[in-house]
Amino acid sequence: MKNRSYFRIISLGLGFAFLYLPILMLIIYSFNESRFVNVWGGFSTKWYQTLFENDEILDAAFLSIKIAAVTATISVFIGTLAALALVRFGNFKGRFLFSGLVTAPLVMPEVIIGLSFLLLFIALESLTGWPSNLGFSTITIAHVTLSLAYVVIIIRARLQSFDYSLEEAALDLGAKPYKVFFKITLPIIMPALCAAWLLAFTLSLDDLVVASFVTGPGATTLPMAIYASIRTGVSPEINALATLIVLFISLGIVMAAIIMNRKRNDRASY
Amino acid sequence: MSKSKIPFYKKVQEQPWLNPREKPYIHLENISKYFGDVAAVKNVNLSIYKSEFFSLLGPSGCGKTTLLRMLAGFERPTTGRIYIEGIDMTDVPPYDRPVNMMFQSYALFPHMNVEENIGFGLRQDGVPKNEIKNRVDQILELVKMSELGKRKPHQLSGGQRQRVALARSLVKRPKLLLLDEPLAALDRKLREHTQFELVNIQEKVDITSLMVTHDQEEAMTMSTRIAVMSEGQIVQTGTPTEIYEFPHTKFIADFIGTANMFEGVLVEEEPDHALIHSEEIDGDLYINHGVSVPIGSHVWVAVRPEKITIHKNEPKEKRNCAKGIVVEIAYLGDVSIYHLRLETGKIIMATVTNFNRITDQEMTWDDEVYLSWKPSSGVVLVT
Questions:
Q1: Any idea what the CATH number is for the domain that residue B243 is in?
Q2: What digits encode the pLDDT tens for the residues A226-238?
Q3: Which of A203, A237, B142, B373 pairs with A159 at a CA distance of 20 to 30 A?
């Protein structure tokens, strides 16, 4: 095997090291006995233990997951409708504008999005009384806007490569249009919907900037909690938390990859 | 031409289209379809009779697929009506029509296995589960796919997918089966084999079928009748023999098979013969029947390459005969195609069956030869 030259192996190793060494360090130090982040004091899982006793962090984590799940679900629902409109309804008036506006948050600085949402919520409260306090609902609304752009792009791409004759075949075989959607279209684009959901979920889970603007007292998301605790010194507890998040996300990605892979084989049939 | 190209004549005892008292099973009345200002289909009238295997043949863009899609209900005609068994179906949506279609891409549902694909139509109609199972099993047996019922489409070969698609469109026993280029995706050998099989299955289930194709050989092999389409209109309807031997126009003569075309003027016209003078060949062209076109008309005479005989010595019969030089030989195995240049400069194609194994070539490039054809071989065309 001449292909396995040392040069190739080394460059591959360096590449992976560049990408994953920081995360590996984090995982290793989460099992550190010592209280200091830069001194190895032996293997221990005590930081995981203290993590699960830290209500503040746990509450923040649950809030973040709740917001992320609701955000992902809402944005996949709205995003599917928007993508359907963009792909299926032909060249309706304002299509170009609509497409531009839907995907604009991609390039909009998060600070601006956060600030504009804050101003909007304040104005709304003085006009209608809602939202009386910032928190779960306001963060969710802002996150939906943020993740919608990505969701629309993923689902639109899938719909564009969709073979229309599948829907026609179903109609031809006696299925009414709504049945065609639920029995044919939806199952076939489902992998794209799952991928979009996962992406929206991670985007929301990860967001610090927008959430900081539109949150209020009592509603602290996980990134906010981590950021706040870092300012008083890095605790190995955070390492443990981060390790769990990495594990969680890796599992999600592996699952998504398995789903996509299985569906890709199906799709290869036309 | 290989053996399997020999036209396969469908066993049709009676020819219902010749019987004026016979009612058409499918009837298109004055169908037109405009996309914006562009007419895809113009004033098409068509009658298809029960159990027929009818083909729409034409080059791409001639409107044949649009016509098919109107029958399926995916497109609504701009004007005209569609009748199936005398019932007006023009405004009936596709899911309520007794019509099923086999798509060119097969359109098998990728997330369902073969049995689920075939049973889909029956499930939509609320057929009881055990009956669905029986009918799916039956049709799988018919298309020889019983072993593969649990496979997903992506686990099948092209030919197998084609069978599943056919089974799916047959299982509901539609009044009309639409076939959109059903064999286009198969390779040549499999296509020739499948042509016969498809016709056999169609005869067995006795479902009236309409096929769209751009492949004249496919249409000739499989159909009871063919409608040739060009620019949105039907230019000729007839049996494969009629279309091939008696084309109505230059376009048809050229599109169906190949034809040598002589442009000329009609100089003599009697009930028993006609004479055409052409600048493209020395000596007039003689046809052994009247053509009912006024003398002096500008006409074309089409002669099929296989109807031309090549002689090494000058034949006795001087009519429909010319001298030429071999300029090109295409050896296809079973036949050879010769390109001959006449003294007028006109290039003529002639096919010769290779009865003997060609080791010592009888004719070769630059040989001087004579070619001739029978007075019954030429077809006089006005347009």
A1: 3.40.50.300
A2: 888 888 777 778 8
A3: A203
